[in-house]
Every structure is written in structure tokens, then in C-alpha cells.
């Protein structure tokens, strides 16, 4: 599909929300403080919106191989373009291999595009989650499972695509659910600017999200590590990113790939 056509189409469909993204990212500059980044990373990486307990660190070790699956909806090239672009950006940021599987059987990340009326059914089928009213309180959903060592080895992203496209939520759902599937499971209303903040209406990755991913996929951090063991490594990684100027440049660097070139 022609890139210029996609850019115009995405701009018409999603331009308002992405304008909000650009405005908010420029005004929230206090997140560059290393102490704030550490506190925010712990909030997003070691907590979960559906549990009050601290968890161990979650991340992938094996390469991620994703596939698209359609449940009684037509193939959607726009959605696939958004996912492909964002997953390519996640690979670039983290250095972790993320590619489309050659066959569905090889996939360990399944992207399910479904109908709104089938959303609850698919949540039960693919996640076995019985959280009350989850299909009403979410516009899309991501879920991952871990092996005995704490490494993520399977994940699923479920989008009721008719619902999301009608409300201009497709980019936000693509970005949030696939990013969280890398091991950043929590949402928080005080972490800003971030896609993990549901009240801020940020649709695309921010500089702070970029730093979260850089920290999480540091070679010194391993799946299953406790917060106590992880904290000195997290702090050291933040210090190095700050020294290298990456924190200061993060908001610019994150704009160079992924959905930004498609939408602007």
C-alpha cells in the first residue's frame, strides 16, 4: 500500500489524538529526572493493574514471532501496517528479535482481530480470564504467560477492530498492547508522559516509554528477578542512559520510527 496514501488516511482517521500526543509530550519535561524514571519504571514493570502484589521482572528471552488471526472479520491491511511498523520499532529499541512468523504454528505472539460482539468470547478462549466486565471496561487486551524461569514465552493481543476503528482507537490499542506484551504490564495515572497512563490520551510511544524499554531489555536484567535484585541494575542503567544523553534525546529518537512517520 502506498506510503503517502497511508499517511493521508491515517491523518484523517487519527490526526486529532496524535496532535494531543505531540502537545503533551512537549509540555511534560520533568520526567527526565533519574529518580522519577526509576520510580515510574518500577510502577510499570513490577506491578499489574489486576493485582496488588509486586511481581518479578517479565521479559522475553526467545525471539518473538507474531502472526495475525481474523475471527469473522475481513483481512485489514491498515491494522497490519500499524502492527508491523510498531513491532519493527520495538525491535529497534530493545534489540530483541521480533519478526512475522512464516506459519501460524511458529508464532508465540498471536494478534487476534475480531468483532466487538465476539470480544468477550475471544478473551475467554485465548486468555482464560474471568475478570468481571473486562470486555466492557477495555477497548483491547493483551495477555502473556511465563515459563518456570519467569521468561515470557507466549502472548496474545485481542482487538475488536470494528469497535476500535469506529472510535479512532486503533493506533492506541496497537501500541499499548504490543508494548505491554514485552513485559511492561501495569497502567498508572501518575506515570507521565506514557502510554501506560490511560487518563492522558497518549496514543504513541513517548520518550519515557522509550527509556522503559531500554531499561527492561538491558542484558543485566533477567526474567524472574525480584525488585530488590533488580533495583541496583535499574539505577545503574538509568545513570548510563543519562550520561550518554539518551534520556535527553529520547523524545526525538522515539519519533523517528514506528507509527510517527505514518501519521505525520
Keywords:
11 helices, globular, six-stranded mixed beta sheet, 264 residues, alpha/beta
* Amino-to-carboxy terminus distance: 17 Å
| Coarse structural class | alpha/beta
Radius of gyration: 18 Å
Tell me the overall shape: globular
Can you give the helix content as a percent range?
Answer: 40-55%
Beta-strand content bin: 5-15%
User: Overall mean pLDDT score?
Assistant: 89
- Taken in chain order, the helices and strands follow as HHEEHEEHHEEHHHHHH
**Count the helices. How many?**
11
Instruction: Please give the largest β-sheet.
Output: 6 strands, mixed
Which spans have pLDDT < 50 for at least 5 consecutive residues?
Answer: 15-27
**Using DSSP, what is the number of strands?**
6
Description:
- The protein is α/β, with parallel strands linked by helices and 264 residues long.
- Helix content is 47%, strand content 13%.
- It contains eleven helices and six strands.
- It has helices at 3-27, 34-45, 77-94, 119-127, 134-137, 161-166, 170-180, 207-216, 227-243, 246-253, 260-263, and strands at 59-60, 64-70, 98-100, 109-114, 141-146, 151-160.
- Strands 1, 2, 3, 4, 5 and 6 form a six-stranded mixed beta sheet that branches.
- A hairpin with a 4-residue loop joins strand 5 and strand 6.
- Helix 2 crosses helix 9 (227-243) and helix 8 packs across helix 10 (246-253).
- The longest helix has 25 residues, at 3-27.
- The model is unreliable at 15-27 (pLDDT under 50).
Amino acid at each position: 500500500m502506498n506510503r503517502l496514501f497511508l499517511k493521508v488516511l491515517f491523518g484523517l482517521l487519527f490526526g486529532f489524538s496524535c496532535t494531543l500526543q505531540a502537545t503533551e509530550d512537549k509540555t511534560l519535561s520533568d520526567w527526565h529526572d533519574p529518580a522519577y524514571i526509576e520510580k515510574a519504571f518500577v510502577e510499570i514493570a513490577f506491578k499489574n493493574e489486576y493485582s496488588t502484589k509486586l511481581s518479578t521482572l517479565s521479559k522475553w528471552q526467545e525471539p518473538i514471532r507474531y502472526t495475525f488471526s481474523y475471527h469473522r472479520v475481513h483481512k485489514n491491511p491498515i491494522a497490519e501496517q500499524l502492527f508491523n511498523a510498531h513491532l519493527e520499532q520495538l525491535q529497534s529499541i530493545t534489540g530483541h528479535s521480533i519478526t512475522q512468523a512464516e506459519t501460524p504454528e511458529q508464532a508465540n505472539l498471536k494478534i487476534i482481530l475480531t468483532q466487538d460482539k465476539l470480544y468477550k468470547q475471544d478473551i475467554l478462549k485465548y486468555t482464560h480470564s474471568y475478570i468481571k466486565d473486562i470486555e466492557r471496561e477495555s477497548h483491547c487486551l493483551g495477555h502473556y504467560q511465563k515459563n518456570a524461569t519467569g521468561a515470557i514465552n507466549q502472548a496474545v493481543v485481542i482487538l475488536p477492530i470494528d469497535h476500535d476503528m469506529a472510535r479512532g482507537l486503533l493506533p492506541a490499542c496497537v501500541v499499548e498492547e504490543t508494548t505491554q506484551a514485552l513485559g511492561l504490564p501495569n497502567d498508572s495515572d501518575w506515570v507521565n508522559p506514557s502510554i501506560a497512563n490511560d487518563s492522558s490520551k497518549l496514543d504513541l510511544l513517548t520518550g519515557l516509554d522509550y527509556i522503559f524499554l531500554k531499561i527492561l531489555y538491558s542484558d543485566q536484567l533477567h526474567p524472574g528477578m525480584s525488585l530488590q535484585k533488580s533495583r541496583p541494575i535499574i539505577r545503574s542503567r538509568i545513570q548510563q542512559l543519562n550520561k550518554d544523553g539518551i534520556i535527553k534525546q529520547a523524545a526525538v529518537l522515539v519519533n523517528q520510527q514506528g507509527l510517527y512517520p505514518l501519521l505525520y
